[in-house]
Write a structure and sequence with these properties.
By secondary structure, this protein is mainly α. The protein is 48% helix and 3% strand. The chain is built from four helices and two strands, in the order αββααα. The protein has a two-stranded antiparallel ribbon. A hairpin with a 4-residue loop joins strand 1 (41-43) and strand 2. Helix 1 crosses helix 3 (105-136). The termini are far apart.
């Protein structure tokens, strides 16, 4: 909005990085559910197997400090091992790895545009997974585990149908007042 090309380039570089991290994070949530976990030990000295680590947010407290230090060190290496200052190819997300991009400029632009779009989608996906995991304990939205939902108050009422269940997008029944609900249901009918 400010028309500054340098600020736009910096923001685009940040968007690309965040998108790449979000794509990795999204795959990190999905992959163990689909393929299973690696055999062997995550930390042999602590006797901690990969199978002992839960998926999602619950893993944060289970991974040893040395594991987090390794992840931070790898992130720092990726960040500092390339010159990503303004005007360099790395600033535009090109690290010379032509397997995924291309030497043809038109094809490269197309692939980088697709990467930006996929990164935006992954940023939304991982935030959604975090939100669902935080509420239900599962990134896959097992809402049966979320017993504190205000929508549970009227699940046994007439008109509640699968797969949506009780649907109140405007939040009229969020207060859980049965008298108000009965009045609104009578008006509806």
């Amino acid at each position: 909005a400010d028309g500054n090309a340098e600020n736009f380039a910096r923001r685009r570089q940040t968007e690309l990085k965040h998108g790449r991290v979000a794509m990795l994070a999204t795959m990190g949530y999905i992959t163990p559910e689909i393929t299973g976990k690696l055999p062997g030990y995550l930390s042999p000295s602590a006797g901690l197997k990969f199978a002992d680590i839960p998926n999602g947010l619950a893993a944060i407290s289970k991974v040893p400090a040395a594991g987090w230090a390794q992840m931070v060190a790898y992130g720092a290496f990726c960040e500092l091992s390339q010159d990503q200052s303004a005007g360099t190819p790395a600033a535009a997300g090109d690290f010379g790895f032509k397997v995924l991009t291309s030497s043809d400029p038109a094809e490269k632009t197309k692939k980088l545009s697709a990467e930006l779009a996929n990164g935006r989608l992954a940023m939304m996906a991982i935030i959604g997974m975090f939100f669902q995991d935080g509420l239900t304990g599962s990134a896959w939205g097992d809402w049966a585990l979320y017993t504190a939902s205000p929508l549970r108050a009227f699940e046994s009422e007439l008109g509640v149908q699968a797969p949506v269940g009780f649907w109140d997008p405007a939040g009229f029944t969020a207060d859980g007042n049965a008298e108000n609900f009965a009045r609104r249901r009578q008006t509806e009918l």
